[in-house]
Amino acid sequence: MSKVTLRKKPIAGGKHSLFLDIYPPVPNLETGKLQRKYYLKIYIYTRPKNNLEKDHNKETLSLGEYIRAKRQLDVQNRRFDFLSDSKLKSNFIDYFEEEASKREGSHNWRMSINYFKAFAGEVFPFTHLNEIFCEEYADFLLSSPGIGRAKRKIKTNHCGSEIVKKAGLFSAMTGFRYSDVETLLWKELQGSDGNYYILYSQEKQTVQNIIPYLIKQFNF
To answer: 106 in the Ramachandran plot: left (φ > 0), alpha (ψ -120 to 50) or beta?
Structure first.
């Protein structure tokens, strides 16, 4: 099995560029060739001069480690789409619609798409998906006017149980089903302050998944 290692390469301006070293190399589905290096297009300062640059290095390395862990799982599960530039530039909305079509009659999926379009528009490249966007979208879901028949904000919808309400919001923001939330363990919450993620295996699946957890958005 290939191992994914986070490495750095000197570049101009007293900086190092971060990249993933995948060995043995894995196939690039777009070119058909084996690929070993995957550049993250993020950098750190070689010799940080102040606290701002030190904080930048710390946060960037933490982000790089998160991406490394995610790509390691992708490689283990033989998902190599992340190497394809055309895939990353394609429209996420099309992918969202395609997944929803597999769940005919699901009102929740249709409403999820409607909310996402209301915030991001009809065209949204995969490359625009990042932590900042997710945080802004979470704020939008919790504060924007409702677009369903009731026209109520999601956050203000009535629920008789505070625990059920929090579990519902958690499920909405992570994509977890009730059965996944019910079996989730604290040890599956990993990472460090500002860059937490959940490592878990969904019910009836043998592959592991990894998702970012916006811990600042919720008071659980």
So the answer is: beta
Direct distance between the N- and C-terminal alpha carbons of the chain, in angstroms, rounded to an integer:
37
Tell me if 145 sits within 8 A of 153, measured CB to CB.
yes
Rounded to whole angstroms, how far apart are CA atoms 212 and 75?
18
Helices 131-143 and 107-120: crossing angle in degrees, nearest 10, is 110
Close Cβ partners of 31 (under 8 Å, ≥ 6 residues apart): none
Task: Please tell me which residue, 213 or 153, carries the higher pLDDT value.
Answer: 153
**CA dihedral sign of residues 203, 204, 206, 212:** negative
Neighbouring CB atoms inside 10 A of 117's CB total 16
Listed residue (25, 79, 92) closest to 207, CA to CA: 79
Place of tokens 């604290």: 186
Q: How many angstroms separate the CA atoms of 130 and 121, rounded? A: 16
pLDDT exceeding 90 applies to what percent of the chain? 28
Name the most confidently modeled range: 1-5, 128-132, 139-143, 168-172. Answer: 1-5
Task: Provide the residue ranges of all domains of the chain, joining segments of one domain with +.
Answer: 3-83, 90-153, 159-220
What does the pLDDT read at residue 216? 47
Which H/E stretch holds residue 24? strand 15-27
